[in-house]
User: What shape does this take?
Amino acid sequence: MSLLNTVLNTKQDKLCSVFFSAGFPGLNDTKKIIQDLDANGVDFIEVGLPYSDPMADGETIQYSSAVALKNGINLDIIFEQLKEVKGTVKAPLVLMGYLNQVLKYGEIKFCELCQECGIETVILPDLPMIEYENHYKALFAKYGISNVFLITPQTSKERILKIDEMSDSFIYVVASSSITGAKGEISQGQVDYFNRIKAMNLKSKLIVGFGISNKSTFDTACEYMNGAIIGSAFVNHLKNEGVDTIDQFVKGIID
Amino acid sequence: MEPKFQPTKEGYYGQFGGAFIPELLFPNIKELEDNYLEIIYSDAFQKEYKYLLDQYVGRPTPLYLSKGLSKKHNASVYLKREDLCHTGAHKVNNTIGQILLAKHLGKKRIIAETGAGQHGVATATVCALMDLECIVFMGEVDIERQAPNVARMKMLGASVVPAKSGSKTLKDATNEAIRDWIGNPEETYYLIGSVVGPHPYPDMVARLQAVISEEIKEQLLAQTGNENPDTVVACVGGGSNAAGAFYHYLENEDVELVAVEAAGLGVNSGESAATSQLGEVGVIHGSKTILMQDEFGQIVEPYSISAGLDYPGVGPLHAYLYESKRATFLNATDQEALDAAYELSRVEGIIPALETAHALAALDKMDIKEGQVIVVNLSGRGDKDLQTYIDNLKA
Assistant: This one.
């Protein structure tokens, strides 16, 4: 069983995940950010692979990606940074990037380096399920990598069942029809959507992302789902406060 | 015989195409994929589409035998006059078709991306015609460079939203349009301007532009007794005018197809948009194609004097035409395109768009046989490029 699945199955609720872009705000901040998030009780950490054209991301993550790229970040450096982190943290790491980065780097090389760095989970929002099934599932399985799929309020019941079947860690429940970015509140419509998904009794754990920006939205999401992911709000914190007060940010979200 | 250059059910031309979209857009793309062929080939759609192409766009556009170019090349050089379409380019063939499709799907809000503003103007035009809300995403840099087209779009009632991300040009405007669609998936229709994007867009746009080669066939037959030319030449950015000019000749390999890309300051100058020469297989805007990128898959910003050709990718059909060698890919520099534009203006009294001028410039690079029948797709007129032409004449 992957480390992530052990975490998901052990804790089961109020799972807290935090996203940031590797190489932001400084090129070499990746290690400190991961270690501080881990030390302050974050259950699993999403490391964003900065991309020139992040079409599913809002302004904040576009910004952190652009700065990180300007800082000189690339996949070679990221894997070096992750090798240094390996063994120093207990929280499992999830890589989140875009398919073209994996394609160009070489799918096999990417998988080999993930394995070397202890990465067992990836999120590639522009890798559709059918492409995954036809071209990536077997390769990822060979390297012990599981792929996370997203669902949205528009995803049909039939498709959610298929996604659940294809998933071997968690399902990324997109809180609303939107790109990433802090929204502030959770509406009744979203609660209805969470309840609808919950009532399906899926085998996969359900983690909410997009629009989880503070303690209140985190707690509300966790009332219905197994946990939530904070992305843009944390990236904004890094942008404004730097890397020295990560503990305060995390304490502001989880007790 | 199985057609070689039609996409598979999943939208693949060879290894290129597909629909690499976030799950958030799956319902939108599925809705289109399930309905586009049925709607486009329904009697009601065809009747309205044909009527608007004839009476609103001004089709059929003429096929004109250029005496000047024919004499120069000792051949028969025909110009397919898409520059005479309403709004000044072939772009409107596609927007008329897609706006009718959007109406059939009950969409209320139309979004589009634009580079030079030609597709934006063509979209704003059909939205005015159909009384639909129109939002055009345009790179902040392009908004500055293409002020007259921005003014046109606004006059037609469209909102022009500046894309401030990335390089602030066409690819970023496309990213912003996709982001908007993700945020507004139900009422909104994304009207893509070229044979790019996730399946079914490349196939749909090619089919809507196919009227160009349909007419070339009829007109050549009437003028020469043979519906097939030896060669069809068209410029390629994303590739919509080329897709339309090639479409009905794709399966007839006796007809040579020449695609002309923008070399900018020279293919290897670092300032170029010759995607087939500089790109590698990659995924952009939902489609696997040939893409200009660095060693880590970051998309490289292309350059051309022509804002309609500086796209870092190319439609998946064209990537396949390149890989399979069905089409010959040539390129022309900024200067070669300018020279070709000045030449056509003088010898024929036709000022072409800068994009089109690249196709004309390729004639000088082709090995033309005596009497060869060549059709150049004159995709657009040069009104929008006058300032560039004037500046470069002075220099």
